[in-house]
Specification:
Length: 191
């Protein structure tokens, strides 16, 4: 998520203060992605340094300073909206790495790793679905954010299903351990 560009987009509507930007960012994203006020001011400082925004110097206290987008900021924002999101190379996904590495670890049943994560993802999907059931009360931004998260979670579950199926059909299977080791007991950790 590009907070930098989201703040530029909000500033393209007119001058705003840092706390106002934080509040509008959270409202526009359906209150799904809370934004730390320190992150707002750090990002504004970088945008100002890069010449993409200008600050009202009337107040020394940065919390009272208003910010506005510059012509360079408008160009940066237009380029961001006109550029597809990075999807060229696979991101470093912890779950994918965990499954791939688990295939070679003696004593680890990859099927158990997959099942633990599948169960957790289904629970998350149920939580998001409960939010969606109140769709009549949801604002549009939250409804779209919920849909995006449900589609993302569903795609991860589908990948786990496909990976499990491919491993079962594979003649390679996990490499046997050099010396027998006891199976590791895997449990889902609560966060």
């Amino acid at each position: 998520m590009s907070v930098r560009h989201a703040l530029l987009a909000l500033l393209s509507e007119g001058p705003k203060y840092g706390l106002q930007l934080r509040q509008e960012f959270e409202e526009r994203t359906g209150d799904v992605w809370p934004l730390n006020v320190g992150q707002v001011y750090t990002t504004l400082g970088r945008l100002e340094r890069d010449g993409l925004v200008e600050a009202d110097d009337a107040h020394e206290d940065e919390r009272q300073r208003g910010y506005r987008i510059t012509a360079e900021g408008e160009k940066e924002l237009a380029a961001w909206f006109g550029t597809p999101s990075e999807a060229g190379s696979p991101p470093r996904d912890e779950l994918v790495i965990k499954v791939l590495v688990a295939m070679g670890v003696p004593g680890v049943e990859v099927g158990d790793v997959i099942q633990i994560h599948r169960r957790h993802l289904v629970e998350l999907m149920q939580q998001w679905t409960r939010i969606k059931e109140d769709e009549g009360r949801l604002d549009l931004a939250l409804a779209l954010a919920v849909d995006a998260e449900l589609f993302r979670l569903e795609s991860v579950v589908r990948w786990l299903d496909a990976a499990e199926g491919r491993m079962k059909r594979s003649s390679l299977g996990p490499a046997p351990a050099a010396t027998p080791r006891p199976r590791l007991r895997l449990r889902a950790r609560s966060r």
